[in-house]
Design goal:
Shape: elongated
Distance between the termini: 40 Å
Strand order of the largest sheet: 10-22-21-20-11-18-19
Strand content: 15-25%
Largest sheet: 7 strands, mixed
Number of strands: 22
Number of helices: 22
Radius of gyration: 34 Å
Length: 690
């Protein structure tokens, strides 16, 4: 029986140019230099906080609340206002500057609202200082600015932390590499001068200077900083290594396969940068909500003015009510609600080997009810492995494996590699053979201790006129039922061993399918392999739907078929011949490692080839969305309750919300939103029962 493999042909996928990063989290004037903004907001927060102390101490309302008094002297009544003015000019000006682009584009948002609140409070307080002493909003304005500066500092800090691990990783990249000359000697050159094809020496304990393929040597490499995998990974000849990872105790010679922007690390950093530049639906909703709130605040302020003028006439109290409405409308909690959650979820994803290239994809992952896995290279390892063995009664397994290892030693056939790996895992040494010879279309033969040894499939048995019986026949029949390839070893007409080989199913695949079922997600498999092979893998893993013998160019049609049935589909593939299907799906998830990471057709990329990481995506998506909605409810709930109270809807029963109490409510709302976002870090994405 032949085992069919789908050809992996590289397919280019065109995509739109990535748009330039416009602001941050809806803050129209924010630039991309988050670390610079973080320092600015931090410094201004601490200075403003210190300046706020005398403002609070000399505020008549605070003194009344807490039952204390400050020494009175000439000009003491100006101490609080003087420091408050300094706070406005130092801590408040950045918000006014960031509101300018929103006003210029006629798209009022977060910065416009914040600027409106602090400016109205400032101007009214200056007026009240002389017209109605003791009724100004100076202390409220000062604390308002403090809270906003603190919130923006926290936001920028979270954004920096989201990409901080990658920036630290970039620092791990060595500046120089040891290039091996043609005569075998080494020379130290700058990593920037490396070219594809260069041969490098990576010494024990050194960082791998760039992406490459191991030509000679074996070692354990620490890839935790890229893949999130804490255990060192054993690698040998033919394996790929990623620039920035740490070599273990072995000495390696690697051939450079990528440099500069083509390396996996560069690709990862590019993806994270793109993710920070993209916005999710919920984030866009928060931006729009701020714009709507601007107009709502103006409308409520106008209605408040009309209603109070009708009720009490043109009194200073009317102006105070209007100002209170505009101050309380400041939605800083709303401004923090989404950006903080997004920054933290991006960070959690990167730490777990999940690279979110498009935030919209992560947000929509919670809606997925069907996942299609490409089989070869995703659910399976894309290589033959020995699934089972049957050995004649008078033979030992080690002896059989040693002989098979020797006979298959020089063959590059996938089946031969599978048998060799089985023998190597068993730790056996190859037997001594001679007179090696290939038998066209049948198998191979050699001589061992004067006896002729054959290795081949059913056609070899035909040639030697051997028939299966007993345990060997039962073994072969079971292997055929499981769509496995059977290879026999014969010594002097005696059938001594039968190997059942199959495309090796990843250890994590069964658990991944089980976990998805527990989450209420249907699992399908898509492959170019034969129906027998596909059905066997599906039975082993418990997969719901199987699409077999599908040509690469038809894979996206299968995705479309499921979408027509009303299913929300995620496609998980290796990003090579799966590109059209990844693009067609509601969410494309590219699974792969090393230089395959920068796949343009997927919204989410998994650094490791681990199907369980697909489960992590859905867990992270659901947890992130819950936090976003919780924060939006907290943030908007504050305004829904506070604005009518500030306008005076309960004034007929004697309750009027003072600006001071409104400021306390606002600060509580902001703190709750910030703490709730930080709680997302407790999300455990490790494989666990759902």
């Amino acid at each position: 029986m032949t085992h069919q493999h789908s050809d992996h042909e590289h397919m280019d996928h065109a995509q739109d140019e990535h748009k330039a990063h416009q602001g941050h989290g809806g803050h129209g004037g924010h630039g991309v230099d988050h670390s610079g903004h973080e320092m600015m907001f931090r410094n201004r927060f601490w200075v403003s906080l210190i300046l706020t102390i005398p403002v609070l101490l000399f505020s008549p309302m605070i003194q009344e609340w807490f039952g204390f008094s400050m020494p009175e002297f000439m000009g003491s009544n100006l101490i609080g206002p003087g420091f408050a003015i300094a706070i406005f000019l130092y801590g408040g000006i950045p918000f006014l500057q960031m509101a300018v682009p929103e006003i210029q584009t006629r798209k009022p948002g977060m910065m416009t609202l914040i600027s409106l609140a602090i400016t109205v409070a400032f101007v009214y307080s200056l007026f009240a200082l002389f017209a109605v002493p003791g009724s100004g909003f100076f202390w409220e304005m000062a604390t308002l600015i403090d809270i906003m500066l603190l919130g923006h500092w926290m936001e920028m800090r979270s954004v920096r932390q989201a990409s901080g691990a990658l920036n630290e990783l970039a620092k791990l990249m060595p500046d120089t590499a040891d290039r091996i000359r043609e005569d075998g000697s080494t020379e130290e050159i700058a990593v920037s001068d490396l070219s594809k094809g260069d041969l490098l020496l990576v010494r024990p304990g050194a960082s791998v200077p760039t992406d490459g393929e191991i030509i000679e040597g074996q070692s354990e490499l620490n890839e935790a900083m890229i893949t999130g995998e804490s255990q060192p990974v054993t690698k040998g000849e033919g394996d790929k290594v990623i620039g920035g990872t740490i070599n273990g105790d072995g000495s390696l010679r690697i051939r450079v396969i990528a440099t500069g922007d083509e390396t996996a690390l560069a690709g990862i950093m590019r993806l994270v940068e793109e993710a920070q530049g993209s916005k999710s639906n919920t984030q866009i909703l928060a931006d729009k909500a701020a714009g709507w709130l601007f107009y709502v605040a103006l409308a409520v302020a106008a209605l408040t003015a009309v209603a109070w003028i009708i009720a009490v006439g043109f009194e200073v109290e009317v102006l105070e009510r209007v100002v209170t409405v505009l101050v309380i409308a400041c939605p800083h909690a709303l401004g923090l609600a989404i950006p903080l959650v997004v920054a933290i979820s991006t960070s959690i994803g990167a730490q777990n080997g999940i690279l979110v290239r498009n935030r919209l994809a992560l947000e929509e992952a919670r809606l997925i009810n069907t996942v299609i896995f490409d089989k070869t290279g995703t659910l399976t390892e894309g290589r033959f492995g020995v699934a089972n063995m049957q050995i004649a009664e008078d033979w030992q397994e080690d002896h059989a494996l040693a002989l098979a290892l020797a006979v298959e030693g020089d063959s590059e056939h996938p089946i031969a590699r599978g048998i060799r790996q089985k023998a190597e895992e068993a730790g056996v040494k190859p037997a001594v053979i001679s007179n090696f010879e290939a038998i066209k279309g049948r198998g191979i033969k050699a001589t061992h201790e004067g006896k002729t040894v054959y290795v081949g499939g059913p056609r070899l048995l035909e040639m030697l006129e051997l028939k299966l019986s007993g345990e060997m026949e039962a073994f072969a029949n079971k292997a055929n039922e499981n769509a496995q390839t059977v290879v026999y070893m014969i010594v002097e007409k005696q059938l001594v061993t039968a190997f059942a080989l199959a495309d090796v199913v990843r250890q994590e695949s069964k658990q991944a399918v089980q976990r998805l079922h527990e989450m209420g997600i249907e699992v399908a498999m898509l492959t170019g392999d034969s129906q027998h092979v596909a059905d066997a893998v599906a039975r082993e893993l418990g997969i719901d739907m199987v699409f077999a013998e599908v040509l690469p160019e038809d894979k996206d049609k299968k995705v479309a078929e499921l979408q027509k049935q009303g299913k929300k589909v995620a496609m998980v593939g290796d990003g090579v011949n799966d590109a059209p299907a990844l693009t067609r799906a509601d969410i494309g998830i590219a699974i792969g490692s090393g230089t395959d990471v920068a796949i343009e057709s997927a919204g989410i990329i998994l650094v490791q080839s681990n199907p369980l990481d697909v489960v992590k995506i859905f867990e992270l998506s659901r947890a992130t969305y819950r936090k976003m909605i919780q924060n939006l409810i907290w943030a908007t709930g504050y305004n829904v309750v506070a604005l009518p109270l500030a306008a005076g809807v309960l004034a007929p029963i004697g309750f009027i919300l003072s600006p001071a109490v409104g400021a306390v409510f606002m600060s509580v709302s902001t703190i709750v939103v910030a703490i709730n976002a930080q709680l997302l870090r407790r999300t455990d994405l490790v494989a666990k029962p759902v």
